[in-house]
Amino acid sequence: MKLVLATHNKYKAKELQTFFTGLPFEVMTLEDMPDSIELREDGYTFNDNALQKARIVHQTTNLTVLADDSGLEVFYLNGRPGVFSARYSGAGATDESNNIKLLEEMRGVPPRRRRAQFRSVLAIVSDGMEKLTEGICSGFLGEQPRGTNGFGYDPLFIPDGFSRTYAELTAQEKNKISHRSRSFDAMRKMLEQGFLNG
Ligand code: IMP
Asked: Which residue's CA is minimally distant from atom 7 of ligand 1?
């Protein structure tokens, strides 16, 4: 069965594609689609955004679509950057400018108050059917960027049980524990229970 990943983020697409290994889906990305599809992310929750992205691509392609909305929630900042993770430092935000802004806001905050978590919500939309799953990875924020793997806030986030940041883990290590792999595990279980067969 054909399935489209509704993301323009090449790192996310790669992580999600890895998770589909061995599953009976022909996984496509938006780059495989004939026309470019604009994805809006103006909801107030990860659920709203993930569903919105999956719905628009389903309406356009008529295929089964999987979308992820995800972000970093810092407890000291009452959950920010949250749904604003990608554009935290404003118009023209880059991963680097977002990391600089976050580090600036957390400057001087002691280790015990640097708790944070990544959250991923996955939405799958098929003919007449919609479903959401969620995954969380807990940890804390380092005081300076470390590591060059991955993307986004990876250089700042140290998952529980590790002394290295996400960006210092290999892709395989990150994929075993990440928020996205956890939401995908829940999604896989649902797919195995025949969600798409009605
Ligand atoms: P969106 O889901 O495309 O709106 O973007 C999510 C944003 O959250 C990304 O641009 C990153 O800033 C951040 N993010 C989500 N997942 C990860 C991750 O696995 N590592 C680092 N940053 C992430």
From this structure: 86
